[in-house]
């Protein structure tokens, strides 16, 4: 073989080896990509890690007295690492898996023990490290589950992974639900949840997660790398009892009137704190839900409740006084006739014109007084800031519409007299109530507030007071006159028949407005808004209140439709607030006895006597007691409670008696009312569970 042939042979061999190697590489790539692709992709997945946010526990929203309006409770997603240290050996796992399956079956009652056993065994065979066992498990359920076989070995050995989720709940369900609101990234924030989200939401933590086969992410470590910071608590101004009364009274009237929607607001006169706010929209025959916050966003013509502003302007300018005479005959203006629905009652005093709600009278008075200088009237409204938003703490407030002569839509013949009785403007119920609140507050105009404190770990980090819009909306004389006129509506005028209560004084004004259609104005098919706005007790105002009912089918006058819920709300608030009672003079004589008291709960009895200013001369640890009058104070005889003996319920009210007897395992059979005077089973005798006991009350 010559040299040339030898060289060529070597070249061919080398080239062949290179080609063969290339084919081998291509084959291996094909094998890795196609044949073993799933395996390597799973391995790649298992090596992927990332940090994810850990949701913080959202802060509570509390009522005025500290009751929970909204809170977060933990819920858990339970997963199992079936290769955890404690069950790594098959012997340990298979010895206890059936016992675990039995426990899970009995606890959740959704699968048989055999089904649970098969599921767990298969997950074990598949090498599951993050097997989903159950979702939406409560904290109390988790405590029980941790005692089950295998899972009681601890989180590192037993393999139980509890992934915490936070569930938002409203303990009082629909009570103040719209005011509490929500904060969802996909929709417009609503209410306190939305407005104070930066405080309530807290700060998210971080956790390192690893992606395992199947694209599932599981925690790398059992503990969170960066712990979340829980949200702060919001202390609202809502009083849960007043809110309950307000919602029920409004809902009852809406159903009775077959109305389209309605709202009611209760506000503290002195502080501007909103104690209750209710809004309902009709969703079907006799069915209403909170769908829209009409109280702060429902801009409409206020109607006759606005006459307060018109008369106040007249009094402030000393254009009239309460004895000035005015005609209630139909008042003709170019293009329109202003008249009273109840007809003319002739020439009467301004006081009578106000408390009978004469449209013709106020239109005539305002038009004659300000016709030559119309801006003088609207300047009062602007000085009172009625054209501005209240700048509330919650979102959604509508901007008021109050015209002036410079507006393009101003009609020099019609606008002024129609504004006088609440038309050609747009105000929300809360805006109207705030103005009445200013009159009750001797002229101090406050912007309502819904939140008074923000707390973290029980400590106040921010405090809110109502913003003062105007220190004095009018002179003392004008305010005093307006207060007297508002009282006269209840004692002599349109509110007497429904609102008047001899136990306490109310001041307020009825309102009936025809509602304009957005497209067709005041259409032939008339729709009305009935309202009543006022405050109580009139001689020392504590609460202001407005009720607005839109589109009632059964009646439409303010006193007839909005009056009953106003009266019901005011009555119940008064009945539950002893601070509003007029002080009763004390007259003690030699044989004075303390107010009689039923036997009953120790703490409740002590609180009642304390509220009445009566000393309790005892320090009993017993839960139930019999009060004894010692003339100088209150002593007690303790009620002995024994799990095996019939309790002595003599002298107790029905509630306490039934509570004790039922807890003892007896079945009370009740006769009469009052306090217990006789029980069929002697106190101290042996209890037979489920045995009936007759109790007689008188």
From TrEMBL:
SUPFAM superfamilies found in the cross-reference section: beta-lactamase/transpeptidase-like, Penicillin binding protein dimerisation domain, Penicillin-binding protein 2x (pbp-2x), c-terminal domain
Swiss-Prot/TrEMBL GO biological process terms: cell division; cell wall organization
MF-aspect GO terms: carboxypeptidase activity; penicillin binding
GO cellular component, one term: plasma membrane
Sorted UniProt keywords: Carboxypeptidase, Cell cycle, Cell division, Hydrolase, Membrane, Protease, Transmembrane, Transmembrane helix
Keyword Membrane appears in the UniProt entry: yes
PANTHER family from the UniProt entry: PEPTIDOGLYCAN D,D-TRANSPEPTIDASE, PEPTIDOGLYCAN D,D-TRANSPEPTIDASE FTSI
UniProt protein name: Cell division protein FtsI (Penicillin-binding protein 3)
Source organism of the structure: Arcticibacter pallidicorallinus
